[in-house]
Amino acid sequence: MAFEVVAAQLARLSDALATSDHASVVSINLFVALLCACIVLGHLLEENRWLNESITALIIGLCTGVVILMTTKGKSSHVLVFSEDLFFIYLLPPIIFNAGFQVKKKQFFRNFMTITLFGAVGTMISFFTISLAAIAIFSKMNIGTLDVSDFLAIGAIFSATDSVCTLQVLNQDETPFLYSLVFGEGVVNDATSVVLFNALQNFDPNQIDAIVILKFLGNFCYLFVSSTFLGVFSGLLSAYIIKKLYIGRHSTDREVALMMLMAYLSYMLAELLDLSGILTVFFCGIVMSHYTWHNVTESSRVTTKHAFATLSFIVETFLFLYVGMDALDIEKWKFASDSPGKSIGISSILLGLVLVGRAAFVFPLSFLSNLTKKTELEKISWRQQIVIWWAGLMRGAVSIALAYNKFTRSGHTQLHGNAIMITSTITVVLFSTMLFGILTKPLIRFLLPASSNGDPSEPSSPKSLHSPLLTSMLGSDMEAPLPIVRPSSLRMLITKPTHTIHYYWRKFDDALMRPMFGGRGFVPYSPGSPTDPNVIVA
């Protein structure tokens, strides 16, 4: 009798697993088909004035969610549950690593002070603006059991921008400085927002004094510095291993696999040590492109460059599709449906705070940045400032992932206040991406009409300091170095710090780093190595 009961339970378990496996296969098939549709439609809408691939994927995700909602009779709107773990562990690393790997290092670090000013300092200003306003407004609206720590988290959540739509419209050859600033600020902004969000997890707002604030700032700086160091160390380690072992002489697949795995390992180590994986994998990508990439065979260079870019593109499309489908999750909307007016009001307030928080630092910091520029071509014009402000108005998957991390458990919540914040975040993301994203192309064409024929305020000469941030790996490393006058005094260091720092860095890099870790022109000859003239590339 007991044996029959056990056998029956095993049979039911087997049926459940089979059903679950079948459902997973159906979900994966659906997502792959939708990704293909997004790519095809994105190509067809390439010249469309209003739409781009991001908005297309979002619309397809929403339409798919509606269809699923109707076929399941209102029980579900998606085939996968949005998980912050899935986002941060599997989806975000390829995007950030590719950003660092494909970045034109020379121009990124020449504009590094301006990028850091907007990406780090600007994000902090936006955080304080949104947080203080949220505390002042939402604490009087009786939104469930939310407290000050939740309002501070809201400031970090809505400080994370998504500039993908703007970058898809801006042309790096026509508006190189503007493109570099928007791109660089977006990466630093995401890292700062996540680091800020993580630092707030150990922050007690009920015991605020000078010591607590100093500890908070110290923890913030520690996360920044430690994460950067780990990324640089991981990149150098990969360069040293591949340079010494010449793995490509036996198998190019192994050296490509080693680059991918060590990049991902750096991200996971950062998460394991409670650091910022975004910063770590970004700087790991920069270091790998500077050293490791030159130590592999020619075929591996082509493979890695296109493999990383393709993977990043697929993941970005998947994320917008994912967000669109999850936006109609009926469970979260049920808990917020008893007060729709309040939910709409909170969403409107949050959207307004995003606008104000963005303006609170873009225009003042642009003014300060312009004070340090000597020529008009180097200054950020009013039209460019408006584009920069507009580029940071859209919110995306990072904001949703942080909101899920704060206000849900495993993607679910039954608390009224938490449900309102989740639905409000989804509303802001959808509204900002759809409305601001659709208006991005017309706005940029109106503000930068000369960009279609080459903006005279944006010199595109390869020798300009404002060259494109992203370019082909070969072009970024093979271009002729700029003639830099050696600084002769402290005044030179103060007046031209970027030139001076770059000069001394190149001396240090050529004398110590490249001979040890490899790089362009510093990989010694050895049979089977990338410099072996007998190696024939297919």
TrEMBL record:
One of its GO terms (biological process) is sodium ion import across plasma membrane. InterPro entries: Cation/H_exchanger_CPA1, Cation/H_exchanger_TM, NaH_exchanger. It comes from the Eukaryota. It is a multi-pass membrane protein. Keywords: Antiport, Ion transport, Membrane, Potassium, Potassium transport, Sodium, Sodium transport, Transmembrane, Transmembrane helix, Transport. One of its GO terms (cellular component) is plasma membrane. Pfam families: Na_H_Exchanger. The chain crosses the membrane at residues 23-45, 57-74, 86-103, 115-139, 177-200, 220-242, 306-324, 344-365, 386-407, 419-439. Residues 32-444 form the Cation/H+ exchanger transmembrane domain. It is found in: Membrane. The keyword Transmembrane applies. Its main location: membrane. One of its GO terms (molecular function) is potassium:proton antiporter activity. It catalyses: K(+)(in) + H(+)(out) = K(+)(out) + H(+)(in); Na(+)(in) + H(+)(out) = Na(+)(out) + H(+)(in). Belongs to the monovalent cation:proton antiporter 1 (CPA1) transporter (TC 2.A.36) family. NCBIfam families: b_cpa1. This is Sodium/hydrogen exchanger. The gene is NHX1.
